[in-house]
Amino acid sequence: SCAWTLVSRPKGAPTLENLALKDISDQPLNDGEIRVKNSFFSVDPYMRPRMNEGESYIAPFELNEPMTGAAVGRVIETRSNRFKVGDRVSHFLGWRDVATLKAEDALPLPDIDLKDEYFLDVLGTIGMTAYFGLFAVAEARPGDVVFVSAAAGAVGSLVVQIAKLRGMTIIGSAGGTEKCDFVRSLGADHVIDYKSPGPFQEKLRKAAPDGLDVYFDNVGGEQLDAAMGVAKWNSRFAICGMISMYNSDTPIGFSNLSYIISKRLQVRGFINTDFMARRGECLAQMGYWVSKGMIKSRYTIFDSLEKGPEAFFSLFSGGNTGKALVRLGS
Ligand code: NDP
């Protein structure tokens, strides 16, 4: 089997030169281990900061070691009584076709009629990020005016839908007409194409003439600055991600930062794992909405292990709509 490894740390946008597909020969299993044939692995924006050296909430990728990340697959070999051959599991050894891991590092997935993709999206950490970011971190309530950026992406497209289900007014931003149409189809009340000409803050002000109660930030930069400008007093900011800044080491000039003080903005960063203890609550609610067809899932699928880097790079050029995944051949 093979895995993608990081061979050099990118400066700016990552390129194929930073990555190499390497053979990882399958050793015999040790006691307590399982072998999993991956059906899908996830590519996620946070993997870009993991390519840098330095401290974060998750260790950087090691040079010349296989990269990791969320994956789903079936057990093909086992030396543990926790799993039998054929069991469906999720785990953290993505970026490869076959994973060998300790059984306790795999999460059993229910044998229900739901496609593997769901467990890397709405019923995985993406769902937790949208659910807890909106309801717990931003404390969003029915009637709130909520702005969410990267609204056609994995997290953003869920935020739009669950905010709508809870009776909020939603403004979503995305790049390009096609993505904006998609965001509208999810139930957003106003859509802003951030790539269209003109200052973003003016467009946001027009969409929210009375101001924002909540901003769910996926991109940082200009859109975060604009949201501070248009925020109401005491409004709540869930700072989820800052993808517009991940490939850059140049600081962005914010002109509205002092509104944090004057408008008493509540700006809170979070990581989905902060809410692991409440995972059951999220799964129950999201599972209910999915089972009733009240949440639509959209995927951009890249076929074959070789397409891993292309799938990952697409996140930074907006090549994905919904969740970006790599599908592995059978
Ligand atoms: P997405 O599926 O949203 O993919 C990324 C999207 O970001 C692209 O499709 C693109 O959409 C948009 N984008 C890329 N570059 C820029 C830019 N310069 N300016 C504005 N938008 C840009 O990814 P995810 O849903 O997985 O992640 C969204 C955000 O949430 C990321 O910042 C990520 O780091 C964060 N995150 C945080 C978690 C947490 O626990 N805190 C967990 C998961 C994700 P477009 O075409 O519209 O530009």
TrEMBL record:
It comes from the Bacteria. The keyword Ion transport does not apply. Keywords: Oxidoreductase. Residues 14-326 form the Enoyl reductase (ER) domain. Pfam families: ADH_N_2, ADH_zinc_N. InterPro entries: ADH-like_C, ADH_N_2, ER, GroES-like_sf, MDR_fam, NAD(P)-bd_dom_sf. Signal peptide: none annotated. This is NADP-dependent oxidoreductase.
